[in-house]
Amino acid sequence: MSGGVAELRQLAKLAEARGILPLFEENQQRAADFSISFDGMLFDYSKTHLNVAARTALLDWAAERDVSGRRAAMFAGAPINETEGRAVLHTALRNLSGEPVEVDGRDVMPEVRDTLARMQTFAEEVRSGGFVGAGGTITDVINIGIGGSHLGPDMAVRALSPYHDGPRCHFISNVDGADAVDVLHGLDPARVLVIVASKSFTTTETMTNAATVRDWMAEKVETPAAQFVALSSDEETAGQFGIPPDRVFGFGDWVGGRYSIWGPIGLSLMLAIGPEAFTDFLGGAEAMDRHFREAEPAENMPMMLALTGLWHHQIMGFPTRAVLPYDQRLSKLPAYLQQLEMESNGKRVALSGETLDMPSGPVVWGEPGTNGQHAFYQLIHQGTQVVPCEFMVAAQGHEAGLGHHHTLLVANCLAQSEALMRGRSLDEARALMAESGLEADELERQARHRVFPGNRPSVTLIYDRLNPRRLGQIVALYEHRVFVEGAILGINSYDQWGVELGKLLAQELGAVLSGEANAQDKDSSTRQLVQFVQNWRS
Ligand code: F6P
What is the pLDDT of residue 4? Predict the structure, then answer.
């Protein structure tokens, strides 16, 4: 463990003893000093325990771990995904600058631009009715994919619903047949476009769902393959599925699945909002890339978001972080960030292969406000665990005539971060109980239940409006946050070996359940569960 971390842990002890509110009394400029503004967004991390000394120590830690060197290596196309020997260049997919981006000495931008142009042409054809299904204009699009080939498009399509002027988009991801059946119910196969989204084009869930949907379509459509497109970095396997090359949109292996929304995997979003708005989405992300590369560390939004994350989890020891968008249309953002953060930084060994000397990335979870307030906020305010919260809210909504809803939404968001920080002391609770007429022992007993410890940290990301550009910025902000946290922890944020063992065992158990193998090598619990299923299925 570096001296920097030991010093930070010392500072954290002092910070916890001091609390958050006194920091505002000490520094009248605290809100401004502990905030970063960039292009329509304000990131306020002043309601945390961080003071100047702790922030400086965190920035020193980032410098000591050479975050800027690793960032330069990523943008330069170095194979920083070392366990897979790959570059990490999702940023090339949103590089609208005309600058080259090289992988192994080859500029990949002509290929990226070509694919984007093909996507745009195809999207226009579908949206204008030039590309039709057996029954006429395409009214509905189904994206079949899972993980990074599902969560990003699903999240972004929902987030930008005010900008939809294309076909309706649906998503099938789970291998549970219920997902396909419920989505297909009521759709006209002759007017559906199916997108098979799979970087590898081998993922069991996606291939199973794609075959099921093809069969469903074949009942009414003579050549279902004519209504299928594929998004994959394995164009050959996609071709073997029966999708011709002109309807396969490929991308390089230097785009990780959970970072792939910016290219072909974003096709459903492009179909929904149109190529122009999709370009705005890319433009927002590109602007965040520039900011990340150019802004000084202390003024750098992804850097400071990452450092507050590390401060809360690795230094102060808070086990989880809640992402709480006060934006119903960001309802899928927590799930999206779960994959982005937990699949990227949920690693127990460093790049060197050594076991990490501190916790890996935290558990990330959340739900939109205000719904969460009526569910789990009780624990956040009064539970024994501290949950650092990441609030998000737009200054303006899209709902003309419903401004009063938006005022309530924003008021609730701001109230929560204030309540978490401020809390309510026992004396304040006693005064409240006295006002309500209680006395003596009953007053004392009731007052204790109404105490809020306060000093619970949160950050707030506030922006003008959730438009395509802003969404692009927000997603890129979180991607770079994950990068910085991974760089400081010394791990590879771009592989995901932890998902492989379960896949392997599922294959074995699939054979057991279908009677092709027996379970004799399995533990007694697994055998018992298999037996239970077999009893009910036979
Ligand atoms: O199993 C995990 C994973 O590989 C994710 O990393 C990925 O996003 C998802 O599966 C889907 O993979 P593919 O796009 O290759 O179907």
Answer: 86
The response to whether residue 209 sits with its C-beta less than 6 Å from ligand 1 reads no
What atom in ligand 1 is closest to the CA of residue 260?
A: 8
CB neighbour class for 25 (10 Å; exposed up to 12, middle 13-18, buried from 19): exposed
pLDDT digits (tens, 9 = 90+) for 160-177: 999 999 999 999 999 999
Q: Does any ligand 1 atom lie closer than 6 A to the CB of residue 203?
A: yes
What does the block give as tokens for 163? Answer: 């900008």
DSSP 398: S
Tell me what the mean pLDDT of segment 251-261 comes to.
97
| Closest ligand 1 atom to 503 CA | 1
| Choice from 144, 146, 154 to test ligand 1 binding pocket (greatest atom count within 8 A of CB) | 146
For 171, list phi and psi in degrees, rounded to 5: -135, 130
Q: Please write the tens of the pLDDT for every residue from 224-244.
A: 999 999 999 888 898 898 999
Task: Give the residue numbers marked as catalytic.
Answer: 343, 374, 503
* Average of per-residue pLDDT across 298-304: 98
Cα separation, 396 vs 406, whole angstroms: 7
On the CB side of 306, how many CA atoms lie within 13 Å of its CA?
29
Residue nearest to atom 3 of ligand 1 (CA): 147
